[in-house]
Amino acid sequence: MGKIKEDVLAKTANTSSPDVTFGIESDGAYRGILELYIIDAGRAEIGLSVEDAYQGRGMGRALFNRGLAEARARGLDTVDVHFLRSNQAIRKLCLEAGGDIRANGSDCMSTIKL
Ligand SMILES: CC(C)(COP(=O)(O)OP(=O)(O)OC[C@H]1O[C@@H](n2cnc3c(N)ncnc32)[C@H](O)[C@@H]1OP(=O)(O)O)[C@@H](O)C(=O)NCCC(=O)NCCS
Predict the structure, then answer these.
(1) Over the stretch 34-63, which tens digit does the pLDDT of each residue have?
(2) What contacts 21, CB < 8 A, 6 or more positions away?
(3) What is the pTM for the complete model shown?
(4) DSSP single-letter state for residue 19
């Protein structure tokens, strides 16, 4: 969501353990990733990221819809999404999915009822 040091990024990636991961490949590599973290029996959190050069081509929407469908298929009730206030693309996707938007400074959170 913002600038982050390489060593912090590597440590975070190496200790991250999403319950479900979906990716979209293009030009021989993964360019977009969605991670679903199941928090408890009814609730999950989505992390979604598309490489800068590949944004604006529908990858984020496709992954987001797939992630929500997976959460529904697993019987979850609610999905949370954390994002920066400046990110209009994820804001749009959350609102379209029926999510609310709560802001705290530059951070936003959306809760989507499935
Ligand atoms: C959020 C993110 C994944 C979107 O990926 P993307 O591949 O660019 O998304 P899409 O191309 O599917 O666009 C989704 C919608 O947002 C719209 N959109 C994109 N940028 C926009 C902007 N600046 N203002 C308004 N709408 C915008 C698109 O037009 C599209 O709507 P449409 O299908 O009706 O045209 C990407 O911006 C990203 O990786 N951001 C950094 C990580 C992050 O903040 N993730 C969210 C928190 S988990």
Answers:
(1) 999 999 989 999 999 999 999 999 999 999
(2) 33, 34, 35, 36
(3) 0.92
(4) S
Q: Is the CB of 50 under 6 A from ligand 1?
A: yes
d(CA 74, CA 69): 9
Q: Which two tokens stand for residue 37?
A: 């973290």
Residues 6+ apart with CB under 8 A from 18: 35, 36, 37, 47
| Index of the ligand 1 atom closest to the CA of residue 90 | 1
Domains and CATH numbers, the chain: 17-113 (3.40.630.30)
The CB of 85 under 6 Å from ligand 1? The reply is no
